[in-house]
Structures are given as C-alpha cells and as structure tokens.
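Students often ask why we bother predicting the structure of a whole assembly rather than each chain alone. The short answer is interfaces. A chain on its own may look different once its partners are present, and contacts between molecules only exist in the joint model. In this exercise we take four input lines together and write out one structure for the complete complex. Read the inputs first and try to guess which parts will touch.
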Amino acid sequence: MTGVEPRFDDLIHAPTRLSLVSLLTAAEWADFKFLREQTGLSDSALSKQLTTLEDAGYIDIRKSFVGKRPRTSARLTPAGRQAFAAHVAALQQIVARSGLEVTP
Amino acid sequence: MTGVEPRFDDLIHAPTRLSLVSLLTAAEWADFKFLREQTGLSDSALSKQLTTLEDAGYIDIRKSFVGKRPRTSARLTPAGRQAFAAHVAALQQIVARSGLEVTP
DNA sequence: AAAGTACTTGCCAAGCAGGAAAGTACTGGC
DNA sequence: GCCAGTACTTTCCTGCTTGGCAAGTACTTT
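Now the answer. The structure tokens for the assembled complex follow.
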C-alpha cells in the first residue's frame, strides 16, 4: 500500500513534464544531456521545463563542473516525488472508474 | 493480460477528455446532463469536447427524445475504447519506468 | 406570449508550448 | 590572439487549445 492521497496535478500531467518527472523518479541526479536525449526536447524547451518544475518546488537543480565543463543536473525534491505519486494515484482512480483491468 | 499496444494519445490525455472518456468506458450510453455534472464542464465546453471526440472517431453521438424533450447521449466506439486502453498502457509504461509501485 | 429546456455555434481573450536565434561564460585548438 | 565549440539560458514570436460568454435553434410548458 502506498497510502498517497490522489491529487491530479496539471503541472505534472502535461506530457513533456510527465516524462521528465518519471525519468527523475527513477534516478537520483539526472543531467541535462540525458534528459534532453530521453525526452527529445530541444535545449530551450528542456531548460524552460526544468525552470518551471524548479519554480514549483518539484526539482532541485545543481550546477557543477565535470573537469572544466559545466554540467546541469536535476533531481526530484521530496515534494516533487510526493506530487508525482499523488498524480499517479489520481490517474489510477480515473482508470479504476473505467473498470479497465490493470496488470502491473 | 490485456495485450494492448501502448500508445500515448494526446487527444485522450487532456484532463477533460480523459475524464470524459473514462466515464464513457464504464457506461454504455451516457447522456449530456450526466457527463456535464460529472465533469463540471459548461454546456459549451462539453458540447465542443464531444464534437472533438466524435470527429476523432472515438465516440458515437445519439440524439433521441425522452418524452418530448431532446436527449443527447454518447458512447465509446470500439476505436475509442481501444485508444483509451492503449493510452492507459502508455501511462503505465511511464509509471513503470519510474519504479513506483502500483496497487490496483 | 414569455420563459424554460437542451443543446450548438461563433467570437474572443488567455495561456502554454515549442522553435529560432541571440546571449553568456568558458574552454580548446590553431 | 582569435575563432569555434560546449553548455546552457533567455527573448521573441507564432501556433494551438481552451474556456467563457452570448446568441442562435427548435421545441415545450405555463
């Protein structure tokens, strides 16, 4: 049992951010390049979405250096993880209502 | 096993249509008033969304009379049902990637 | 005749999203 | 030193979607 209160989150629901957040749930820190490749977003689109998620308090952004090159990484905050779980619960509720069988 | 090919469907993903379609999956024919109450949409918004879903081939719209009053009802077409199932499968794939536990 | 039911359609204004391109701040050859 | 490249960020702009509001349609009810 997860015990998360279902809560539909429009910010997370948008396709690009849904992928982004789900990628982040799996990892600890994920870096810009990885996220860009996985989502197929352009630099600018990804940058903006990350800012949006950061402003919402759903992710932390860390800027570090690997050798002498900058590296931007992101990870979910506890709030972000919680919001994602709550959103998934909300989706499950919607699906449950439909009577569709779920096989995890 | 459902055996449905996962296919993310932008048309179905939008929150209002997602609720709408999930409501329709549960029922056979659902009428306008019921859908409006369940979704909290305005007459015009609902009317437009139903047209959108009909144009996509996801629902059938039936206009009948109950006594002397008109009654508009909708139900999923097989294509709509299939698209919803495929979309849910796509969502499950996304959630599965996140490693979040699913309890149906 | 006026009001109500049951929608539908047109118009509009808001909001979001992404591409292109320029900007920033360095680093790395040549 | 200078030009190109990396790694983003920000701005500008365009397109798409949505919802509200208002008017229209076609009857029925009081």
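Check your guess against this: The mean pLDDT of chain B is 92.
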